Amino acid sequence: MIDLDTISTQPPSNISKNEGKKGLVQLRKELFELQNKFYADGRFGLLIILQGMDTSGKDGTIRHSLSSMNPQGVQVKSFKKPTEEELKHDFLWRVYPHIPPKGMIQVFNRSYYEDLLMPMVANSLSEEVLAHRCKLIKYLEQHLRLSNIHVLKFFLHISKEEQKERIQERLSKPHKRWKYSIADEKAAKQWDAYRAAYNMAITNCDDPSWYIIPADKRWYRNYSVANILTDHLKKHNLKYPNT
Amino acid sequence: MIDLDTISTQPPSNISKNEGKKGLVQLRKELFELQNKFYADGRFGLLIILQGMDTSGKDGTIRHSLSSMNPQGVQVKSFKKPTEEELKHDFLWRVYPHIPPKGMIQVFNRSYYEDLLMPMVANSLSEEVLAHRCKLIKYLEQHLRLSNIHVLKFFLHISKEEQKERIQERLSKPHKRWKYSIADEKAAKQWDAYRAAYNMAITNCDDPSWYIIPADKRWYRNYSVANILTDHLKKHNLKYPNT
C-alpha cells in the first residue's frame, strides 16, 4: 500500500531551479516535434490523466508542460461536477467520447478517478460498488493499452502546508482570486479523507503505475511532467509513414 | 461450457402457434404501459442486446416484439462493420455514447459482442487480447447493473438448416431480396467457427445470463422475447413518481 505521506513533495536535490527552467524550454521544443511524429505515425493514442488535490497545479501543468504541441493533435477535457444529465448515466458515459483514437493525445484534467475518490470521501457508495469501480478502471486501462491507446497517469503531489498557502494566495492576489472557491476550503478540511482515498486508488489502479510528481515547486512539476512525457514518446520509435 | 448444439431451436411443446400469436398481441399492450411507467419511474435504465447468427431474426424481433413502445423512451442502435474512424478507436468507443441513462430502454442490434466473436472467427487477435475483452465485457455489464442500468441479452438460436432456408428465401422472394448479401453466404460457410465463438461468449460472459431463444419459428421467437421483457419490467415494482 502506497502512503503518500512518506513521499517527498519537494524537488530532488540533483536539479536546480535554473536547470529545471532551461530544461523545460528544451523539452517543449522536443514535444512539438514528437507530437507531430506521433500524429503522423498513427499507431498509438495517448491518454494523459492529471489528478491531484485542489490547488495542486493541474491547470498550470497543462499551460506550461503540455501547451507547446499542435492543438490539432492534442485535446484537453476537464471533468467538473457531473451535470444532472450525466448523473442519469453510469460514470463512464461522460468519459468515453473523449477516449482518444490512434494518433491523438488527450489530456484529462481530473478524470474517472473522481468517481472513485469523491464517493469514498463522501461515503456515498457501498464498499462493493467502490471495489467494483476500482477493478473496472483497472480493466479499462489494460483494455486501452491492448488497443494501442497508452495511459500516462500523473498525481501532482503537494503538501498540506503548500495547499494552505495556495488557497491564501488565491484570496490575496487579484489575478488568482477568480480561481478561489468555497469548495477549496472545504476540500482542505477533508485533506485526510482525500489522502486515504488517493492512497487506495494509486495502490490498486497501478497498471500502468502512477507517476507521483513532487509538486510543491511549480518549476519542478512542470519540468518533470514534460520530461516523462518526452521519454514516453521517444520510447516508441515513432516514424513518419513511408520513411 | 454451453453447447448450443444441444439446445433446441424449436418452440417448446406447451404452446401452440395460435397461443403465441395471441399472447404477443397482449404482451405488446402490456409493454406499451410498462415502458411508460419505466420512463416515469426513472430509477433504472435497460440495455437489450440482440445477437444471433445471420438471418436469425434480429430485425424481425425489433419490429414485432419491441415496436409497441413509445419511441421517445426506446432507442435502437445497429452496429455494422466498424468505419475507418471507429477502427482508430478502441472497440468500446463507438458503443458507449449509446449506453442508456436511467429511464431509457436501448436496443442493440448486434453489439460489442461482435468485437469478441468476429476476431475469434477471423483469428485476427491474440488469445491474450480476446481473453481480456471477454473479462472487460463481464466487468462492464456488472458495472452497468451496479449503476442501475440493467442488461438483457438475447441469443436468437436458429439451426443451420433454417439459416440455409432463409438465405434461399432472401434470394427468391422479391420483398426479402434486398436483405441478401454475399456476406450471408460467407457466414453460412463459417457456421462452425461462429458456433464455437458463441459457445465461448455465452459461457464466459454470463452475468447476467443469456436468454437463448429458440428461433426457428418466428412466432415463438417474437412471443418469447416480448414475454421475457415484460417479466423483467414487472419485477421492479415500477411506480409513477409521487403515487
Describe what you observe in this structure:
The structure is a homodimer of 243-residue chains. Chain A is of the alpha/beta class and 243 residues long. Chain A has one domain (4-162, 191-234): P-loop containing nucleotide triphosphate hydrolases (Rossmann fold). Chain A is 50% helix and 13% strand. The first copy, chain A, contains ten helices and five strands, in the order αβαβαβααβααααβα. Chain A has a five-stranded parallel sheet with strand order 2-3-1-4-5, sandwiched between helices. In chain A, α1 packs parallel to α10 (218-234) and α2 crosses α10 (218-234). Chain A is globular and about 55 Å long. The mean pLDDT of chain A is 94. The interface between A and B is medium-sized, with 30 and 30 residues. Chains A, B: It holds the Pfam family PPK2. Chains A, B: Belongs to the polyphosphate kinase 2 (PPK2) family. Class I subfamily.
DSSP helix count of chain A?
A: 10
Shape, principal axes of CA atoms of chain A = globular
Q: What would you call the structural class of chain A? A: alpha/beta
Largest interface: A-B, 30 and 30 residues
CATH class of chain A: Alpha Beta
Kindly report the CATH topology of chain A.
Rossmann fold
Strand content of chain A: 5-15%
Mean pLDDT of chain A: 94
Largest sheet of chain A: 5 strands, parallel
Radius of gyration of chain A: 18 Å
Using the 3D structure, state the CATH architecture of chain A: 3-Layer(aba) Sandwich
Protein name (chains A, B): Polyphosphate kinase
GO biological process, one term (chains A, B): polyphosphate metabolic process
Pfam family, one (chains A, B): PPK2
Family (chains A, B): Belongs to the polyphosphate kinase 2 (PPK2) family. Class I subfamily.
